[in-house]
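## retry 2 of 3
previous attempt timed out at serialization; input unchanged, resubmitting
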Amino acid sequence: QVQLVESGGGLVQPGGSLRLSCAASGSIFSINAMGWYRQAPGKQRELVASITQGGTTNYADSVKGRFTISRDNTKNTVYLQMNSLTPEDTAVYYCNADLRGTKWSRNLEVWGQGTLITVSS
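## retry succeeded, writing output
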């Protein structure tokens, strides 16, 4: 069984920074894309940023220039560096991974449990 464990959330003042981490563990053969999504109260879950195994990144327009996604394939870990945070960034942030448990298994989409980020003074 594969798990994604997130860390790094919390309360931060507007203009501040936070770094999220998400580590995948369990039976993993390969991880394709990894990403971060968020869901604010009363809103749908949205993509924040994603990164392929080769390092190609994609960002939501609302976070471009402020957030940076990266990954360490040796640790099966993805990071999200968030700078210049605003109250509009307040949400539960979820880690996501598209992976294979074995060489012969189908791709599987796995989600983390979510971590709350609150941007407030």
